[in-house]
Specification:
This protein is of the alpha/beta class. Helix content is 22%, strand content 23%. It has 2 domains: 32-354, TIM Barrel; 359-482, Galactose-binding domain-like (Jelly Rolls), CATH 2.60.120.
Length: 494
C-alpha cells in the first residue's frame, strides 16, 4: 500500500513538472535580431540629399554639391519630432540613387565634404546617429546599391567601392538595428559625366551572398531589409499596409539559375501576406511616406497624412504583425516642416493614449485550458512579452472569458503570440454576452507579433469572450482591450 502511494505521489510530481515545460517550437523561428526588430514596430526613413534642393523625387547624379546647404539643420529637433510621434527607430538614407554620400567617405568624391555644409567638415550620418543615441532611438542606415553618379557603376570596381561604403557605415556609427536596401538597380544616370544608361543583372551583379556577409560580420544585430527578403521583406506596396492574413513566415522563390532558395538571390516578389507555414522567418515592413513623396516638395504642404490616417495605417501594419516604416523628408532649411511635426505629434498621441491603459487590468479573466502555473492567464496582462499563457499539448482551441463589474467601452482587442516559439494562431473570434446568449462581434485570422482587431463600433459590455485556434499547442503573451483616445477639437482662436 505504501509503495502504491509513493508511486502515485511521484506520478503527480511528474505530471506537475510536465505542466511547467514550455511548448515545443513550431515552424520557422525569429532570430535574436529579428525579435529586437519586432519590438521597434514604428520607425522612420529619412530622405535628404541634393535632390531635396532640386525639388525632384529622384536625383540624376549630376547635382552640384554646392547646393546642399541646409543652414538650419538640427538632427536633435528632427529626432525629437520622431520620438513625439512614437517612432522607435530611424533609418537614414546615407546615400540615395543620386550617389551623394552624407558622410565624408573615401570611396567617392561625391560626398558631403564637397558641400558648404559645416564648411565642408560635416558628417550628417554622425549627427543623426548621435541624436538618436541621446534620444534613446535605434539607428540604421540605407546605402543605395544603385549609384547614378559613380563612373564605375556596372563594373566590379564599383561593387568593391560599394562594399567599402558599407564597411565605413558599419564601423564608424555604432550598433545599427537595420541595414536597409531596395530594388532600384541600374538605368540612366550621370555616371561621372557619361550620361548614359547602364543595366545590371540585379540577381548576380552585387553578389549579395558575399556582400551581405560584411553586414553579418560587422553588424550582427542589424536586420537586412530588402524587397527580395532576408531578415525583413518588403510588403509589396508603398501604401503602408499588410494583408489581413499576415504571416511572418515566408518561403522565397530561387532566382533563375540559382539553386539556393534562401538566403541566396531571390525572385522579385511582392508578398503582403507571407507564406503560411513558410520555411523562414521573414516578417514584412510596410513603408509609406508621410507626404505624397519620399523627398520634400514645397507644393506638397497640404498633402501630409493626418494623425488619423497614420493611425489607420498603424492598425493595418503593426496591427497585422508587420512594422510601419514612415518616410520623413527635411526641407531645404534642414528641418521638418511644421505641418509634418504637427501630424507626427498627433499620431503619437493617438497611439500612445489609446494603448496606454489595458481595460483587462480591471477584469477577471479565465481560460478554458491552462498548461500550468508558469503559463497562466496572469501573463496576458503583465505588460511583458517574455511571459505567456499556453495550453496543454493536445488543446488547439481555447476560450478566454473576460468580465467586468461595470460596462466597458471597447474599440480594440490586441493579441500577441509568444513568437520566440513561432507563429501558429490562424483564427480569432470575439463574442459579447447580450444577457441571454453569446453574439459574434469581430474576427481575425492570424496574430503573430501583434494583432489589433478594430471593432466596427464601440462595444459597451461587461462580458466578452475571445477564442483562438491553431493546428498545434497555443501560446499568447498579451490579450488586451482598449478604448480609442479622442483628442479635443482644435480651438478656432487665432
Amino acid at each position: 500500500m505504501k509503495k502504491r502511494f509513493i508511486t502515485f505521489a511521484l506520478g503527480l510530481i511528474s505530471l506537475g513538472t510536465w505542466a511547467q515545460v514550455a511548448p515545443a517550437p513550431y515552424g520557422a523561428l525569429p532570430s535574436a535580431r529579428q525579435l529586437k526588430w519586432h519590438e521597434t514596430e514604428v520607425y522612420g526613413l529619412i530622405h535628404f540629399t541634393p535632390t531635396t534642393f532640386e525639388n525632384k523625387e529622384w536625383g540624376y547624379g549630376d547635382a552640384d554639391p554646392s547646393i546642399f546647404n541646409p543652414i538650419l539643420f538640427n538632427a536633435d529637433s528632427i529626432v525629437a519630432a520622431m520620438k513625439a510621434g512614437g517612432l522607435k527607430g530611424l533609418v537614414l538614407v546615407a546615400k540615395h540613387h543620386d550617389g551623394f554620400a552624407l558622410w565624408p567617405t573615401k570611396t567617392t568624391r561625391y560626398n558631403i565634404s564637397r558641400s558648404p555644409f559645416r564648411e565642408g567638415k560635416g558628417d550628417m550620418v554622425k549627427e543623426f546617429e548621435q541624436a538618436c543615441r541621446k534620444a534613446g532611438i535605434k539607428f540604421g542606415v540605407y546605402c543605395s546599391p544603385w549609384d547614378r553618379n559613380h563612373p564605375d557603376y556596372g563594373t566590379y570596381e564599383y561593387v568593391k567601392a560599394y562594399r567599402e561604403q558599407l564597411r565605413e557605415l558599419y564601423t564608424h556609427y555604432g550598433e545599427l538595428f537595420m541595414s536597409w536596401h531596395d530594388g532600384a538597380n541600374g538605368g540612366d544616370g550621370y555616371y561621372g559625366g557619361a550620361r548614359t544608361t547602364r543595366k545590371i543583372d540585379r540577381n548576380t551583379y552585387y553578389a549579395w551572398d558575399t556582400t551581405w556577409q560584411i553586414t553579418r560580420s560587422l553588424q550582427p544585430m542589424a536586420n537586412l531589409f530588402s524587397d527580395i527578403g532576408w531578415d525583413v521583406r518588403w510588403v509589396g506596396n508603398e501604401s503602408g499596409y499588410a494583408d489581413e492574413r499576415s504571416w511572418a513566415t515566408f518561403t522565397p522563390t530561387p532566382a533563375s539559375g540559382e539553386s539556393k532558395a534562401f538566403p541566396g538571390n531571390l525572385q522579385h516578389e511582392f508578398n503582403p501576406m507571407g507564406t503560411k507555414g513558410g520555411a523562414n522567418w521573414v516578417p514584412a515592413e510596410c513603408d509609406v511616406p508621410l507626404r505624397k513623396g519620399w523627398f520634400w516638395h514645397p507644393e506638397q504642404a497640404t498633402q501630409v497624412k493626418s494623425p488619423e490616417q497614420l493611425f489607420q495605417l498603424y492598425l493595418k501594419s503593426v496591427g497585422r504583425g508587420a512594422a510601419l516604416d514612415l518616410g520623413l523628408a527635411p526641407n531645404t532649411s534642414g528641418r521638418l516642416s511644421p505641418e509634418d511635426i504637427e501630424s507626427l505629434i498627433g499620431f503619437g498621441q493617438l497611439v500612445g493614449k489609446t494603448f496606454d491603459k489595458n481595460l483587462m487590468n480591471s477584469a477577471s479573466i479565465s481560460a478554458s485550458n491552462e498548461r500550468g502555473n508558469n503559463f497562466s492567464v496572469t501573463s496576458l496582462t503583465d505588460g511583458s512579452n517574455s511571459t505567456y499563457w499556453a495550453s496543454e499539448d493536445a488543446v488547439h482551441r481555447a476560450e478566454f472569458l473576460i468580465e467586468w463589474q461595470e460596462p466597458q467601452s471597447i474599440d480594440f482587442i490586441r493579441l500577441r503570440e509568444y513568437i520566440p516559439l513561432g507563429q501558429r494562431i490562424e483564427n480569432v473570434r470575439v463574442d459579447q454576452w447580450n444577457g441571454n446568449s453569446w453574439e459574434p462581434v469581430a474576427s481575425a485570422s492570424t496574430v503573430g507579433a501583434c494583432r489589433i482587431i478594430a471593432l466596427e463600433k464601440t462595444l459597451l459590455s461587461k462580458k466578452i469572450r475571445v477564442s483562438i485556434e491553431a493546428p498545434v499547442t497555443l501560446t499568447l503573451s498579451e490579450l488586451g482591450c482598449y478604448t480609442k483616445f479622442k483628442p479635443s477639437p482644435k480651438s478656432n482662436l487665432p
